[in-house]
Protein 1
Amino acid sequence: MRHVLFFIFSIASIFAALMVISRKNVVHSALSLVLLFFTTSGLYILTGAELVAAMQIFLYAGAIIVIYIFVIMMINMRKGTTDDIENLPKIFIIGAGCLFFAEIMYFLSKANYAGMKDIYSVEKVNSSGGMTYNIAKIMYTKYLYPFEVISLILLIAMIGAIVLAKKADKK
Amino acid sequence: MIPLFYFIILSAILFVIGLIGFLIRRNIILLFMCVEIMLNAVNINLVAFSSYYDSLDGQILSIFVMAVAAAEAAVGFGILIAFYRNKNIIDSDKADLMKW
C-alpha cells in the first residue's frame, strides 16, 4: 500500500515538474508548481514527517505561490520575453542534464548508507509527545543559534524586498 | 518501509528536471520556479534520510531550507520588479547591464 502511494506521488511530482519547465504560459507553470508541492507533501507524510508536510502546504503552496501569482499578474508577460533558446539547441542542455543525472546515480550507487542510528525512532517519538513536540524541543535547544539566524535572514529579506520594490521618489 | 534508494532516485530526478529547466528557460519567474523545484528535491532527500536514521535533524534542516526559500523568493521578486520597472523586460538573456 505504501509502495503504491509512493509511486503515485512520485510519478505525479515528476509530471508536475516537467509541466513547470515546459509550459509556455507562466500561470500554468505556477499551477503545476502547486501540484508539485502537494505531491511532495504526500511523500513527507509517507515518511512520517507530518510537521514538514504541513509546513510545506502552509509555506510553499500557501505563501510562496501567492507571491508568484502576484508578480505574474503585475508584469506584462507578452511584451517582455521571447522564451526560446536561439544560440544553443535544447537537446544539448537536456543531454547535459541526463549526463549529470547519470553521474549522480553512479556516485550514489557506490555510496555507503550504513549510518549511525539516532534515538528518535517512530515509536519513541509517538510515545513522547509526538513529532511536533520533539522537533520543537530539538529546534530550541540544539539548533537555537541557526534558528535565530534564520529569523534575522527573514527580517533582512523582508526589509530588502520592501526597499527594492518601492517606487523611487520623484525629486 | 519504502527503500531509501527510491527517495534518492526521485530527488535526483526532480533536481535534474529543475536544473534543465533553469538552463533552457529565459523567463526570470520560471527560473525562480526551477530553483524551488531543486530546493524541493533537496528537502525530499533530507526528510527521507532523517526518517531512515531515526533522527530529527534532517526535518529541522528542511524547515530551514523552506525559510531560506521564502526569503529568496521575496528578495528575488523585489529585484525582479525593480528591474522590470527600469528596463521593461523579464528576459534573463537581455539583462546585460554588467556585461564586460
Note: Chain A touches chain B through 87 residues (CB under 8 Å).
Protein 2
Amino acid sequence: MDLFIQQLINGLSLGALYALIAVGYTVVYGIVQLINFAHGEVFMMGAFGAYTTWMLMGSPTKVSVGFALGIMLPAMILGGVLVSVVTALLMERFAYRPLRNAPRLAPLISAIGLSIALQEAVRLFYGRIPGFPDSRRAIPFPVIEGLTGRSLQLGGVTIQFSAIFTLGALFVCATVLWWFVNKTRMGRAMQATSQDADTARLMGINVDRAIATAFAVGAALAAVAGVAHGLRYNNIDFQMGFMAGMKAFTAAVLGGIGNINGAVVGGLVLGVVEAMATTYIPGQFGSSAWKDVWAFAILILVLVFRPQGLLGAKVVDRA
Amino acid sequence: MNRRLAAAGISGLLIASLTLAGCGQRSAEPTAGATQGGGKKIAKIGLIAPLSGGLSAMGAGMRNSVDLAVKQANESGAIPGWELQFVSEDDQASPDAGKNAATKLTGDKDVVGVVGPLNSSVGQAIQPIFESAGIALVSPANTNPSLTKGADLANPKRAYTTYFRTCTTDDVQGPFAAKYLLDQGIKQVATINDKKAYGQGLASAFATAFKASGGDVVGEETINPDDKDFSAVISKVKAAGPAAVYYGGEYPQAGPLSQQMKAAGLNVPLMGGDGIFDPAFIELAGATSNGDLATSVGAPAESLASAKAFLDAYGKGGYKESYGAYGMYSYDAAQSIIEALKVSLKDAKDATSARKGTVEALGKVSFNGASGAVAFNEFGDSKARVLTVYKVEGGAWKADKTEDFK
C-alpha cells in the first residue's frame, strides 16, 4: 500500500511538471491551431533564466531559509518567467506571425528550426559568458535552502518538498489561468479569437495582441516548470526541452489539445501511468525502460476510442 | 516583403549558429607538434572520443593525453626520420558518429594507429572498419569483454586482430565490486543499468559474481539513457530493501540517480564502474553523494611512481581540462602504438605500408607505462588486472582500496 501511494505521488508530481508545460501547447494550439514545437525550448530557457538570475544575484550559496524561500526563489521564478516570455514573444513576432496565413506546414517547420536554434544558442553562448558554467554539460541547479533535498516522511511514504512545490505551482497556475481566461477582458478576447479570428477582429478585438498573450501565458507556465525541474532534478542542460516537450505534447493530446483542463488532466494521467507501469507491470515489461511504451500505448488507445482526447475540446470550438 | 525579410533573417541566424557550432568544436582542439619538420616522413596517430556532449569531460582528457604522448615522441625523436602527427575525431559517444569518424581516419593514408573510443558501444561499431583497413585500434576505456573475446565468453575467440586495449574489463570490474561490497558486509544489493553495451555488461557481471559469492540481488532494474526522472524506479528498488545499489552506466545518469535516491529516502551507497568515476558525477549528485563508490581500472594515478612523469608533463602541457579517468590509459595506449611504430616504421617507405607491421608489433610490445607494465595477451586485452575502489568523501573521489584482482 505504501508503495502504491509512493508511486501515486511520484506520478502526480512528475505529471504536474508535464501539465505545466502542456498548458503552453494547448493554449497556443487553441488560439492559432499551431503546434509550437519550440515550446520545450521555452521551458529550457525558463530554467536557464532562473539560473542566470541566481548568478546575477551573486550566486548566493549559504543563505538563511527565509532569504532562500522569500527572495531567492521568487526572484529566480520571476527571472525565468521574464526570459521565457520574451523568448516566446519574439518567437511569435518573428517566426510565426509572418507565416500566419501560410500553409500549415510552414509554421511547423519554422518551429522545429527555432527549437534547434534555441538549443544551439544556449549550448554555444551560455558557457562563453565569463563566470558562467560550461553549458555543453549538465549544470547543477542552485540549492534552495529549506527546499532542495528536503522531504516529509509519512509512514512509509516520502514526499519531497520539490514534489510539493511542483504540485502547488500547478494548482496556483491553473487557478490563475482559469480566472484569467474566464474573467478578464483579455481572456475573453482570447476565447473570441480562438473561435473565429476574423469575426473577432471585426468586433474590434486586437487579434495580434490576443495571440501574443496566449504565447506569453504558456511561456510563463513553462518557466515555472523549468524552475520546478531544476529543483526536482538538481541539474539543467540545453537539451532538457526536447524530451520534456515531447511528453508535454503527448499530455496535451491525451487530454484533448486546445483544452486547458485537458492538458492538466493529460499531464497528470501520463505521469501516473509512467510511475505505476514501472511497479505494477510484471516481468521485464515493467522495468523503468518500458514506461514510455506504456505511456504511448495509453495515448494510442485514447486516440482510437476517443479521438478528441480525454476531455474533448470545450474551451475552444475549433480544436 | 516584410515576411520575406523575417524569413531570411531567421534562416540567416540558423546558418550562422550552425557555422558557429562547427567552429566552436574545432577551435577547442589542440594540435600536436609543430608543422611538418624538414624532409621528415609523416605518420599520424588518430583519436576517436566523445569531444562534445555529456561525456566530453572524459573525452577531452583522452585527447589531451594522446596529444601529450605524440608531442613527447616528436621532441625526443623516438622514431628517426619520421614526424608524428595527431588527428582527433569526435564520436559524440554515439556509434553512428563513431563510424563516420572511423571512416574518415581509415581514409587518411598517413594514419597508422588510433586511440579510442571511450564507449564500448562505439567500439563495437568501429572495430570492423579498422579491421578491414588493417589499422591498429587501441582503446584506453572500452571495458566490455566481448570486444576482445567475442560474443560467447564461455568459448573466447579473438574477435578482431587489430583491436587492443590498455584497461581491464567488466568481467574483472563487476566481480571486483561484488567482492568489495561483500567484504563490507553488504549482502543485499539491487542493480540498475542503462541497457547500453557497457552498463548491461557491467551490471550482469556484477550480479553473477555477487550471487555466486553468497550475496542476494533483490532487484534488477533498467532505465533509459535519456531519462531524467528516476523516482518510480527508485521507489520500486527502495521497497525491496537493498543495502546498496549497483549501477551499470555513466555519470550523466548516475549523478542525478544518486541525488534522487538520497532525496527519496533511499540512503544507501550507489556503486558503479569506471563510467561514473569522474568529478562530474559528484557535481551532479550533489552533497548527498558522500559514501558513493566506483571501481576504476588500474591504480590511482597520484599513487603510482610510474605515473609521476605523466602527471608532471600533463601539468606543464597547459591543458585546460583534467586528464580524467582515462588520461593515463590513453597516454599508455598512444605509447604502445609509438613503441610498435619504432619497429614497423624503421624500414617502411610510407605510413600505409607500415600498418600491417604496426599491428604485429603491437601484439608484442612490453614497456613500463604510466599505469604500470603495459603488454597485451592473446586476445588483445591488457595483461594488468589492477583495480581500485574509489569513494566520495567531502565532495571528491578518494582511493579506498587498490588490489591486483585474480
Note: Chain A has eleven helices and four strands.
